[in-house]
Amino acid sequence: MEHDEDELQSKDWSLLYDDLKALMASHGTEDPFGNGDYWILDENWGPRQHKICVFNLEVLRPYIASEVRVLLRKFPGWAVMFAVDVPGTENEWPPMGIIVREHEIIDGLQRQYFPPKYQSIQYEGSRVGTDQD
Where are the domains of the chain? Predict the structure, then answer.
């Protein structure tokens, strides 16, 4: 039984990865070395979650999170984590990001670190994360 669950998880991971690649390509450039706008981690570590490293804060725009939520309707129980990783801020900004699920957005952004242009980003219906997320 566990083997079947692992196979299903792996299949869903790959399908969602492909869908995320297509969606995010319309919103910027992917580069694993921080020279683009984002990078979608390309290894399946087991949880029902994908991680997108955000190198350009434009990727955090609410309409992109909304599009990811729509995409997740095909993948119940899955989440996409957007982890802020803007080059040059590693020693100045704490770890932060958002978690997007089909039914919610968990907002862990610390906007006081952002340039003014991005400090007012808000996600409709979002909530602050807890240690249970």
Answer: 2-128
